[in-house]
Amino acid sequence: MQVGIAGSPQSGKTTLFRLLTGMAGSHAASTSNLGVMEVPDERLKALGDTYKVRKTIYARIDLLDIQPYKGQEFLNAVRNLDALVVVIACFMGEPGVEDSLDFLAGMEAEFYLADLASVEGRLERLRTNKAKPVSQSELPFLDKCKTAIEAEVPLRDVDFSPHEQDFVSNFAFYSVKPIILAPNIAEEHLGAGSYPGMEEINRLAQERGYRVVPFSGMVEEEIESLDEESRVEFLMAYGLTQPGTARIARAAYDALGLISFFTMNPNEVRAWTIKRGTKARQAAGKIHSDMERGFIKADVVSFEDFSRHGSIKACRDRGLVRLEGKDYVVQDGDIINVRFNV
Ligand SMILES: Nc1nc2c(ncn2[C@@H]2O[C@H](COP(=O)(O)OP(=O)(O)O)[C@@H](O)[C@H]2O)c(=O)[nH]1
Ligand SMILES: [Mg+2]
Hints:
single chain, alpha/beta, binds guanosine-5'-diphosphate, Rossmann fold
């Protein structure tokens, strides 16, 4: 899974990239920066604090700071990404907002054109017998895509059957990628309840189904340099409980349809990433292939139960630690101990 940061020049993409990855010196203007971001999780932190473990290992996602911002070069950079964070330069006032929204509109238009070209290319090959339809449902599927794109409905908003969804994965469509808008706002607007462009951004997001998560590049760079305690104080002064960047990472993770389950041992608590709907045996395979192969059962307690009763032991005493089999569908926040034998 890889998320990209896109936006108009000077909107704060590289600043956001640095904040999310902790990678200093990612300044290069000519190449796209690639890094890894941690996905903050209050639940995992609470688990780690309760058991005073040495290490808390958060989920991680690949992140790309996309340099090109239009044309084929931009499309190539975005092609294999699973979601996009689009930075909006609200800290520059109305002109910045306008630039950024122009970028967004241009990007959406390029996505439609590229998707339309993919669909029409395929239709043409079928029409001229250069290729055979995968099945008799391929033509109706292609027509459905074409109709949507021509009406400027992004493919992510089209109701595809599971069968059609398989077709979708065979194309490198652009308009299926989830988008999160990240207004980069000035310090004076942080915690103020409004910022330049807010209404327009929210209206647009509502229309398109985009999430909006504001942050302040400059303020958050200041926060970076503080110790944990001062950081909390600093945020509270703005009426915030966590930095915008933390919420952006979280929003991207959610937009990808990813959830976490947790494991713990005396040394560490750790989040593991799975797709929603993953069953216990496959989930165990994320930890180790032996656990998948030799899977017997899993002890599972939900984070909510843990949080309510304060410890795993308290949950066990109340019968809240469930013994689940291989086909159990793992839920977000499950605390899991895999029993296996190889
Ligand atoms: N005042 C202000 N400046 C910012 C903020 N975020 C980024 N900048 C500045 O804007 C410039 C462009 O930022 P950068 O992250 O390199 O933008 P990019 O071109 O989108 O990668 C840099 O000089 C940043 O210091 C912000 O929130 N407030
Ligand atoms: Mg940059």
